[in-house]
Amino acid sequence: MSEILYHSPLAHAAYHDLLRSLRDEAIGDLRGTPTRVTRNGRIYWYDSFRVGSEVRKRYIGEDSPELAARMAQARDARAPAEQRRKDRARLVRLLRAEGFLGLDPTTGSLMAALAAAGVFRLGGTVVGTHAFRLYEGELNLRLGFDQTAQTDDLDIASFERLSLVLEDMASPPVQQVLGDFDFAPTPSLEPGKAWRWRQTAGNALVEFLTPAFGEEGLRDLPALAVQAQALRHLNYLIADPIPAAIPYRSGVLVQVPRPERFAIHKLIVAERRRADDRLKSEKDRQQAAFLITALAQDRPDDLADALADARARGPRWRERIEASLARMPAVAKTLAAL
Predict the structure, then answer these.
(1) Distance CA 335, CA 153 (A)
(2) Which tens digits make up the pLDDT trace of 66-113?
(3) What is the residue-averaged pLDDT of the chain?
(4) What is the pTM of this model?
(5) I need a surface site. Which of 102, 133, 215, 333 has the fewest CB within 10 A?
């Protein structure tokens, strides 16, 4: 199991300053009046503004004390936008100097474009290896080369039901953003539908995923105007995601799964695809082992709750977790000691 190394307290503080600034910027960029809308017993906030004779709504987020406080804070006088951008760029430079991971220009630009279009504001959650890399800031972990080999795949997951209820859409459309970066849809088994987009001049791949509540297959994500592959166990992974800052240019705000859920989910998927893709299965177990070791030291209660939640979801969940742990005795011992 890899030794856990950490960034300096200065780097940890700089990351959270960058994240806080990006979140404040997202809330403060209002064109009209914050409006509460209740749907299915849940409260959502929208930025309501008029375009000609039409009133439009731009989704801000689900109601919470933290969101209310951020909107109140956004009404106060702040530094000019250019100064805020320069301050964030300075934090990014500090993080890079401290050894934080970066993104290649193509991936960084694509992430920034997807964020600007509203993909993550509208519920899109980065999963897979890109999410694992972003736990560097959340947990202040110093990741090794063997853990951070750049992947050409970008996986984005979202709840189909959330996409239906928001009544807001990415702008410009996600398909247009991908087209601007020379991505073309990869044909699927369902004619006229695509959930994978491959870059025409390279190996980069963008995949859209959604939880399966029943049969796996393709589902529509209306807020993103794309199709997504429905997968079991994904509802557990992307429930209650957290914001994350990508240290690229002046920072990019995205969201990722909670690290404890990511770790336990990796135990499940490692066993599920062990027969089909042993290399990916081994990578899943390595990422799970690293995060579980770190979380057992830093957030043991969160890790214990995530494990109990997964085990309570049924015998198949428990079987897959235990099958993975049978191959990971040190990790099994760590979890048993929680």
Answers:
(1) 30
(2) 887 777 766 665 667 788 899 999 999 999 999 998 788 888 889 999
(3) 87
(4) 0.86
(5) 215
Give how far Cα 202 sits from Cα of 184, 253, 279, Å: 11, 26, 22
Structure-block tokens of residue 274: 């062990």
Residue 137 tokens, joined: 């800031």
Write the secondary structure of 264-277 as one string of H (helix), E (strand) and C (coil): HHHHHHHHHCCCCC
Cis peptide preceding 172, ω within 30 of 0: yes
Q: How confident is the model at residue 191 (pLDDT cuts 50, 70, 90)?
A: confident
Q: Which of 260, 237, 223, 56 is nearest to 124 (CA)?
A: 223
Structure tokens at 31: 């064109």
Reported as a single tens digit per residue, the pLDDT across 243-259 is 999 999 999 999 999 99
**Which range in 81-85, 184-188, 198-202, 231-235 is most confidently predicted, on average pLDDT?**
231-235
Q: Is 168 helix (H, G, I), strand (E, B) or coil?
A: coil
C-alpha 193/C-alpha 293 separation (Å) is: 41
DSSP 44-97: EEEEEEEETTEEEEEEEEE--HHHHHHHHHHTS----HHHHHHHHHHHHHHHHH
Which residues neighbour 295 within 8 Å (Cβ) at sequence distance 6 or greater?
Answer: 139, 259, 260, 263, 302, 303
d(CA 204, CA 125): 18
* Distance in angstroms (rounded) separating the CA atoms of residues 45 and 35: 6
The label of the residue with tokens 């979890």 reads 335
Separation CA 21–CA 126 (nearest Å):
20
Q: What is the CA radius of gyration of the chain?
A: 20
Distance CA 256, CA 120 (A): 9
